[in-house]
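Quick one:
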Amino acid sequence: MSDGKLVGIVLVSHSAQVAASVAELATGLAGSGTAVAVAPAGGTEDGGLGTSAALVVTAAASVDGGAGVAVLADLGSAVLTVKALLAEGDELPEHTRLVDAPFVEGAVAAVVTAATGADLAAVEAAAAEAYTYRKV
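Output:
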């Protein structure tokens, strides 16, 4: 458990609408309890489809409360953008982690878990566990 600080969540998508909608869904399903900082980082800076490192950096800074930042990404270049930022080492907040998880289910699990005050490792594990959710 944390010291009252909550893990922040960044959702990186090729689409601003997808990132914002998944953020809305995840926070809505987490309930009205503790408010986890969740920021979408979707699309390009001019509103097109793609991924923007600048939007990711801004989103991560906006959710950083000192307990770490979990970043979930949807597809190829979104993942590569986050990996490149992490490799640079100075653009993202300390204790930022790219989480290997399905985008929607992982985001919900991450936000719900972060809302309990869990640490970054537990948030990452909960999001990754979403790969095991069976639908049939």
